[in-house]
Design a protein that fits this description.
By secondary structure, this protein is of the alpha/beta class. The protein has helices at about 15-25, 45-55, 80-85, 90-95, 100-110, 115-125, 135-140, 150-160, 170-180, 210-220, 240-245, 255-260, 270-275; strands at about 1-5, 25-30, 35-40, 60-65, 75, 160-170, 185-195, 195-205, 230-235, 250, 265.
Length: about 280
């Protein structure tokens, strides 16, 4: 048996009643003003529910009815355009007037049209010579958390879950977010800096999609968790390996390829919508 979680900024009562009929749910309960759960939903009616929700711009998810937030032991997140609203490398590039060139490469990589390692190498090379002090204003002035991020994290952390931020971005930002948000662990690329300037290179291996999956598995096993106790959230093609490895892989305001392949999607609400799956 499952509960069907429906989310959007505005949800019409008649839509909830229709979804209850389509899914054979026996009860509708409010989670909050933007989220409702339909109890006793039948997942074999998923196709009709999917069509209705897509037509009416509603986020939905079938969740095993006996699962609660306390069953989730690990939440794994991408950083750029997932936990935060910006792509940090694009904003760094803006400091030297080459944001359009870098952003085009970023977008193609996120759509899955370019190899991630190759694309990052190309983008970082364009930053060679930039003073490292340029990173500060990107974090302080441009970096904003995705809507609902803090509420989601507090909910999962309060229930005992560990958190992993694994990013194809840079440690300059992940380390600051780790302190700010009390994240358990962060993994990201290290920008090489010599004499106070970016060299245009990255130290060590680049964090790509395969590495994200490996980090998720390692932390899951270290914690002794089953896949169904793990949530992973991302937006780009390089997040798909870890989304498929988690019991609940969520595409958050993601690229079309990711939405097509991810088991769950959030488009209408913020990151707290992921927490609502388990409330």
């Amino acid at each position: 048996m499952h509960r069907l979680v429906i989310q959007a900024p505005n949800i019409a009562t008649q839509d909830l009643k229709q979804l209850a009929r389509l899914s054979d749910a026996y009860q509708i309960e409010a989670i909050n003003q933007q989220a409702f759960k339909l109890l006793g939903a039948h997942i074999d009616n998923e196709e009709a529910v999917t069509d209705f929700c897509e037509s009416n711009q509603l986020d939905f998810a079938f969740i095993p009815e006996d699962l609660t937030v306390r069953d989730i032991g690990l939440v794994v997140m991408d950083m750029d355009s997932t936990l935060i609203t910006i792509e940090c490398i694009d904003e760094i590039a803006d400091m030297v007037g080459i944001k359009p060139q870098v952003a085009d490469i970023t977008a193609a990589a996120m759509r899955g049209e370019l190899d991630f390692k190759e694309s990052l190498t190309r983008r970082v090379a364009l930053l060679a010579g930039l003073d490292e002090t340029a990173l500060g204003p990107v974090y302080e002035e441009r970096l904003k958390l995705m809507a609902g991020a803090e509420k989601m994290l507090k909910g999962f952390q309060g229930a005992g879950a560990k958190t992993l931020l694994v990013s194809g971005g840079f440690t300059y930002f992940t380390e600051r977010l780790q302190t700010r948000l009390q994240l358990t662990r962060t993994v990201a690329n290290v920008l090489e800096i010599e004499n106070g300037k970016l060299t245009g290179r990255v130290n060590g291996d680049i964090i790509d999609g395969e590495r994200k999956k490996v980090e998720l598995i390692a932390m899951r096993e270290a914690l002794g968790l089953k896949p169904e106790q793990v949530v992973a959230i991302g937006d780009g093609a390089n997040d798909l390996p870890m989304l498929h490895e988690a019991g609940f892989g969520v595409a958050c305001h993601a690229k079309p390829k990711v939405q097509a392949e991810a088991p769950y999607c959030i488009n209408q609400v913020g990151l707290d919508g992921v927490l609502n799956y388990f409330l």
